[in-house]
Amino acid sequence: MKLSRQMPLNALRVFEAAARLMSFTRAGEELGMTQTAVSYQIKLLEDHIGEPLFLRRPRQISLTEAGERLAPKVTQGFAVLAEAMASVSDETGQMLHLDSTATFAQQWLTRYLGSFQLRHPNIAVRLSTSPVVNDFASTQADVAIRYGRGLWPGLKAHRIMRMDFAPMLSPKLAEQVGGIREPADLLKLSIISAGDVWWEQWFTAAGVKNPNLKRFPPNELGTQSFDAGMAIAGQGVAILNPQHFQEEVESGRLYQPFSLTCNDGRDYWLVYLETRRHVPKIRAFKDWMLSEFPSAEE
Fold this sequence. Notes:
The protein is an alpha/beta fold and 298 residues long. It has 11 helices and 9 strands. The protein has helices at 3-6, 9-21, 24-31, 35-49, 65-87, 102-119, 171-176, 197-205, 224-232, 246-250, 280-292; strands at 54-57, 60-63, 94-100, 123-129, 143-148, 155-161, 166-168, 238-240, 267-273. It has a 5-stranded mixed β-sheet with strand order 4-3-5-9-6. A hairpin with a 2-residue loop joins strand 1 (54-57) and strand 2. Belongs to the LysR transcriptional regulatory family.
């Protein structure tokens, strides 16, 4: 018997989208089908299997026990097919969509991405930035750089940079107060983004009790790059990841007065869908990133 007669492939494709998006309407929008057509394909599959796959409620669906068992296998099956198609094509004209946090994109990617392009000249890179965790369902990103603990269901995660933090400021600003000799001296200056939880953690580790950070404006600038910009301009002291700003330190624009750094367990990770781990362009980018951060995963 032909495979097309044994396996209702179109219905399975519709089921995969509906199970992933938990919506017949959104599945139809993704596949270019009407909601009625989606419902029809799901019904065909349920008749083929002999069991319901979804519980249908007003404006809401959920997977049945049979649907829960089937969904991951179908997703894996389509991923294998996609990998098979990708494995027989070359890299010519490929586009890799990379989504990143703004600070990592500005302080690292834009400075070193050229070496990836030299190694893979036929893979173009589209870079976007986002402050939220990329769920790979609402965007078309192939890979993402994210900040966290590396525990995202369905995603393969590789630690690429430790997110240590320490106070940093302009050397000229330090001179204006006669130098920074002990951690408490930092409180003589304006504290940038004083509401950042990193400050309390660092002062506690440095042995400074009751730094009274509430007397400073609890600004939230959104990215470390903005905090660093204010520090370079002599507007105060910022709590930053020193690894991000090595060039600024070497050029004399920023100064890290104390070697003490802290880490709250959250770091930078390269992530992508586990089911797409063998796609050539994703594998190529992953191999390049890990070669740039050889010790980060340890």
